[in-house]
Amino acid sequence: MHSPPDLGPAQHAMIADLVRQTAQEEIMPRFRSLRPADIAQKSGPLDLVTKADTAAEAMLTDGLQRLFPGAAILGEEAAQATPGLREAAAKAPLAFIIDPVDGTWNFAHGLALFGVIIAATRFGKPIFGLIHDPVAQDDILACENSPARHISADGRVRQLLVAQPKPIGAMQGYVHLSLMSKARQHDLAPRLTRFARTDALRCSAHEYRQAAQGHVDFVASPQLTPWDHAAGVLIYQQAGGVARLLDGQDYDIATPKGTLLCAPSDRCWQAVAQVLQP
Which CATH number fits domain 168-276: 2.120.10.90, 3.40.190.80, 3.10.150.10, 3.40.1390.20? Predict the structure, then answer.
């Protein structure tokens, strides 16, 4: 088995530069300027793709292939068209997972709550993650051997820490209730009143950004699409949090089903999991 290629600070900086350039060239010029022909449905009216998604993914894919020849590339839009990309990425010594515009529904409706997500994985396990806000032009990022940090548009760096542990009744978090079956929604919704507040932003990028900065206490999702979660899981863990599936498994991009839960400590994780368990 070949050793995974190196991915150090210089490579991280090149990836961040590529993401910023893509955001300014392919995403922001289309924000609040989309024509009806630039927006299409995938699985339904709540699942959209825009010209910004496809153009940004193409630019990111091309750039990553030039920077890292031979690396597997798994883009959200390409995965829809080419079955098997996810499995190939999970087996690769180096793979890049791309969500070109996370929060497409928000983007398509003029809400400034969307982001670009890039993760690098080694045999399915995240080793680098970056979440870029094209509006603020700032990043949160982490790698497997360094703390999570925020880098502002002017280059200032701040280390990130998840929220302090607290009782269930004082916790607030993001729960993707609408992605669950109707039966599970009806079962779980009354129990969510045990928390101080639960929301969903229609954007994993900003949910993970909020959680990694300690602004909310937990994130729970029943949909394990790797472009939504691979970067955020690593960033959250490197900010001091606990992230695993409700069945106790560690996160891996190859795992197709399950509920992913991020919480500030193991004790908090267990308490939230007890509420969320079917």
Answer: 3.40.190.80
Please give the Cα distance from 253 to 246 (Å, whole number). Answer: 15
Contact 201, 215 (CB under 8 A): no
For the chain, what percentages of helix, strand and coil (3-state, to nearest 5) are there?
40, 25, 35
- Summarised one tens digit per residue, pLDDT across range 59-92 is 999 999 999 999 999 999 999 888 889 999 999 9
Burial degree of 39 (CB within 10 A; 0-12, 13-18, 19+): middle
Is the CB of residue 162 less than 8 Å from the CB of residue 241?
Answer: yes
What are the tens digits of pLDDT across the range 204-241?
999 999 999 999 999 999 999 999 999 999 999 999 99
Q: How far apart are CA 15 and CA 138, in angstroms?
A: 14
Q: Is 40 helix (H, G, I), strand (E, B) or coil?
A: strand
- CB atoms under 10 Å from CB of 272, counted, come to 26
CATH fold, domain 9-159, is: Fructose-1,6-Bisphosphatase; Chain A, domain 1 (3.30.540)
The yes-or-no answer to whether 9-159 and 168-276 have a common fold is no
